[in-house]
Amino acid sequence: MKLLAMFGLMLAVLAAVAYLDDPPTRAELVFVNRSEVFTLDPQRMSWLQDFRIAYALYEGLVRWDNDDFSIEPAAAEWTLSDDRLSYTFAIRPDARWSNGDPLTAHDFIYSWQRAIMPDTAADYSNMFFVIGGAEEFFRWRAHALDKFAAANAQLDPDTRAANALELWGETIARFEETVALKALDDSTLRVTLVHPTTYFLDLVAFGVFHPVHRPTVEGWQVDEATAAKLREFGWSNLSPPSFANRRFVKINSDTGRLEQKHGWTKPKYLVCNGPYVLTQWRYKRGLRLERNASYHSPQRVHSASIECISIEDTNTAILAFESGQIDWLSDVSAEYQADMLAQRQAYEQRYAHQIQEMLGEGRSLDEALAALPEPQAGERRNIHVFPTFGTDFYSFNCRPILSNGRVNPFADPAVRRAFVMSVDRHAIVQQVTRLNEPVATTLIPPGSIPGYQSPAGLEYAPDDARAELKAAGWEDRTGDGLIEDDQGRPFPVVDLLFSTNTPRYKNISIVLKDMWQRELGVRVELRGKESKFFKEDLITGNFMIGRGRWYGDYGDPTTFLDLFKTGDGNNDRGYSNDYVDELLQRAARETDPQRRMRILEECERFLFAEEVPMLVLCQLVQLYMYEPAKVTGLSRHPRLTQYLWQMKVREP
Amino acid sequence: MTGLIVRRLLQMPIILFVIYTITFSLAWLIPGNPLENPEGRRPPQVIMQAMLEQYKLDNPWSFYWDYLGKATGVSWLLGEHDRPFDLGPSLTHQDWTVNEILAAGLPVSITLGLLAILLACAIGLTAGIIGGIRPGSAADLATLLVALVGISLPSFVIGTLLLVIFGVWLKVFPIGGWGKLSYTFLPALTLALPFAAYIARLTRFGMIDELATDYIRTARAKGVPQMRVVLKHALKNAFLPVLSFLGPAAAMAMTGSFVVEKVFAVPGIGTHFVNAVLSKDLTLIMGVVLVYSTMLILFNLVVDVLYRWVDPRIELS
Q1: Nearest residue to A517 (alpha-carbon basis) of A525, A506, A505
Q2: ipTM (interface predicted TM)
Q3: How far apart are CA A470 and CA A474, in angstroms?
Q4: pTM of the entire structure?
Q5: Following CA atoms A461, A467, A468, A474 in sequence, which dihedral angle do they give, to the nearest 10 degrees?
Q6: A chain contacts of residue B92, beta-carbon cutoff 8 Å
Q7: Are A14 and B114 in contact (CB < 8 Å)?
Q8: What number of H helices and E strands is found in chain A?
Q9: Cβ neighbours around B269 below 10 Å, total
Q10: Higher pLDDT, A508 or B30
């Protein structure tokens, strides 16, 4: 009896905590994002999966045309002044926020100000430094905050609070004064740049330049009458409520900083201006988007509802795809991915002739695949390789002295060249990663930036590699198969650092070790570390050769080449070269777009034909799964910014 | 009994404080910076410094006391903070507070854990009784085999197998996610199997011992039907070892299994334990540990009280 009572009790508890939701109706498009979304605040984003949702929720002034790499108007048309310094954006009169408020030039100024302020901690704040006065303002604010904290530490709380508010007022005034952003009227925005920047519109199309709705972000608590005014004129004509009446921001009186809470990105609060609104967002479960009724161009939006579900485990995600629960799987990184690709190849080979014919008629590869018969056992057509705007490489530590105090042999470019020329990249992509990524000798993926011609880097040439080493004073003098310098000291054991979070880098590192030991007669020691430890070693320069990868952000070579600037925050190699710095500066000042590209080409040539601060292996690829007969609207633009509103699922 | 409950409740804050201190010290030693994107570009130094200060990550001492005050509600009582039991924003997913994350994940893990324990009892007791009645029979060997498989096969293998069979081939259950009852069955079963195997073994041995005792023989001599002998008389005593196993088992099942949650994409707490540590999400680590420690302490208390209620011979000190 008592046992039964206990089970009854457990059942009762179970019922009490039962958390079984209603069955969700399937959205028109269901996909699994690359990873969990971190934030829906566009200014604070830095992950691809976040931006993917941002482009569905928000709309910038302009956007990328995914088919031909060009820029097209989104929320605004633009004109450029003759001196190429000022852009004037005319915002569409029918552009509105999802709550009905008009979209104005002030929304953009506010959002960009958020990104430039050190307080917001935007990863991309320095992208805004092309705007006149932005960098000065950023530095001024950072300095003012430092001074504030020091000067106010001894004061009583009330005085501190008053001083903090005063500094805030001064900051706003300073911003208006120094930063070259002007609302000529409510629907016209003028932006003046520091110097002509050919890729400025490309930046503006990037997610961090998308607008946010100030009353939402700050959590304005307003009465009905004010809300009505907001709906008619927007917030710019109203004086904002006091900080006590703003739910999500406050001024910290100890530091003087504006502190922002991020709760406004939840469906309950979020107001946006893009093709979709957010109707559900649940941590580690996914989010749901529905058509935004206030969006100005509903004909652009192909699916009425989109569901992005979280499945962390890639095997489960593939099974869910196979069972039809998911239309598009945006990241496949299973151990058997290469075997899946082989099945795809088998399918393509069987129909090679028909595919060629259809491609000749101008059909896309997906259309051709969709028109073919179903794959047989051991074949598939639902896995797809997409090249990305990113590159896989190994960094050489270029500092003269290693972190352990020893002399660094890789400070010598000749040694670096030898190490690069002794690596057979084709063997790596064919036999190690087995993904057949496009091999690369330079960092910028060839063909990914219009108007830019990638120079040639160093190819596989083991004989030349040995000659380089010999010329640099390293050769086998004792006949033991290992190289020594002219005083007979052996080449230091090469410390090869990689992260162990994926098997990819372990496998590549093992092969690299083998190639270098065999071709050059050096000893290589592998050091695999968990990613946090790995990163720490990378930043502090505790490595000789370390694995790395880089994805570009905007359509200009500097998104890659800035990595080599002396002292750049992402320059893990500790690389510094006057000629490179000078070329980058010259490019920044050059007003002629063509001449500028030539300068940058020379910069990359010098870097990868002579200096090689890194061993570039290949362009990174992304594997997608979708049925070509069902899913349309995915772009092959290397930046892989898939606009969700362009995608459509049709039942075959 | 009341004395026991009061004593345990009084001990609780001390235990929690020790757990908090130890967890914090260990978590702080994890290298790296939770605010940084591990792959990709790094924000300017000034910004990183500002963020570290905002989240009190620049000084372990101030983080330790600040978090303790907010989490326990002391800061709220002193009027320094606007709400009690605030576990802070997650440091890696800053749009979410730890309270929101736990509120979303806990019910899922608890539901799944309880379902798994119920399933484990149902399967384990049945198998144990069948085996215990006729030790050495074919039925006994069959349950032994199942138990062996349940204990030795790792749950990611069982889980994936179940997904392939019931999700992809038969299409009777959905793959991954959480929602209707149909979403809960496969993960609950996967989670239940090892527990069921233990319960089956415990029940079987208990049953064999009990069925050999004098009082059972007496009952049989009196003509009590077999069904009644087994279920009413023998099981009652054979179940006691199972009950003592159920306490920790239920706790284990409800704290969420990282593997099961990952394989079935269940949005529970188990994955947070691991992911929070990997990404050094201090607030989430501390929040999850504090909430779970509290739950475990209370849960152990409940089990002890229940135990005594079922078998009044047991003395609890």
Answers
A1: A525
A2: 0.85
A3: 5
A4: 0.89
A5: 130
A6: 38
A7: yes
A8: 20, 20
A9: 27
A10: A508
